[in-house]
Structure formats: structure tokens, C-alpha cells
Amino acid sequence: MKRKEDIKRRTLLTALAGATSFASSSLATDRRRPDKIVFAFNGQMISVTLIDNPTSRALMKLLPLSLTIEDYAHNEKIIRLPQRLPTTGNVPFAQEAPGDLCYFAPWGNLAFFYAAYEYSSGLTRIGKIDGNIAPLLNKGTYKLTIR
């Protein structure tokens, strides 16, 4: 009788271990799936795929947000955030391109680049526009929602 109980117990423990392993791997898969956020302004929407770093994770925790997007320089639009984001652990990057979404730590704002730009030590790239950058080309200041 004791042998049957031991076999049942081992079978149950093996099944539980398998279920726990499956749940852990599913959670790990979910963490690797890139997060997307949507910026809506001037009757248009921009979808952005975020890079997984401390800065983008902190931004996600602030959402949803209602802010303003405005022109800056001749190659970007900026969004002033209600609080600063962490940049620890972030590293210099290359292959700067229109469509990049960055955080500019010295001012505490987001920067959407729609023309060529160069990396500077205050920038942290946090994402890339999923499609067309055309909505960024409309000059002006607009109410913005981020979700």
C-alpha cells in the first residue's frame, strides 16, 4: 500500500513541477515580448515598439498620460514629462535614425526624431516608430495622449 502512495505522490509532484515550469516559461516569454505604446495627437496615431531598458519600463508605469508635443530644432518633436525617468544601466548607441524615440535626461523629456540626429551622452533610445514618421512632420504644438 505504501508503494502505491509513493508512486502517486511522485506522479503528483512531477505534474506540479511540469506545470510550474510551464508557467515560468510562459511568464518569461511574456517578458520578452516587446511593449508597444501609442501616441495620439493632431487626429493621428503613432505606434512605438519599446526597447526593454529601465527608462522605457519607467515610462510604461506612468501611462496613460495627457501632455503636449511640440517642435524642437529642425529634426525632432519633444514631450515634457511630469517626472524624470531613470537612465541607470543604459549605454551609448549607434545607428541613429528618423523614427527613434529617445529620452533626453538633462531636460527630462521625450524626443521623437523625424530627421537625422547624432547620439549625445544625455540621450537614451527607448523605442522605434512602427510605421511612418509622417505625423511628426506636421509643424505645431498639439495636445497628446500616450497609452
Gist?
This protein is of the alpha+beta class and 147 residues long. The protein contains two helices and eight strands; from the N terminus they run αββαββββββ.
Helix content range: 25-40%
Topology order in helix (H) and strand (E) letters = HEEHEEEEEE
Mean pLDDT: 85
Shape: globular
The third-level CATH topology of the largest domain is Cyclophilin
Major beta sheet, specifics?
8 strands, antiparallel, barrel
Oligomer: single chain
Gap between N and C termini, in Å?
A: 60 Å
Which regions have little confidence, pLDDT < 50, spanning 5+ residues? 11-30
What share of the residues does DSSP label as strand, in percent?
25-35%
What structural class do helix, strand and pairing data support? alpha+beta
Number of domains: 2
Lateral arrangement of strands in the main beta sheet: 1-2-7-5-6-4-3-8
Your description of this structure?
With 147 residues, the protein is of the alpha+beta class. The protein has 2 domains: 1-33; 36-146, Cyclophilin (Beta Barrel). It is 27% helix and 33% strand. It is built from 2 helices and 8 strands. It has helices at residues 2-32, 54-62, and strands at 36-41, 44-50, 65-72, 76-80, 100-104, 109-113, 123-129, 142-146. The chain has an 8-stranded antiparallel beta barrel with strand order 1-2-7-5-6-4-3-8. The longest helix is centred in the N-terminal third of the chain and has 31 residues, at 2-32. It is globular, with a radius of gyration of 22 Å.
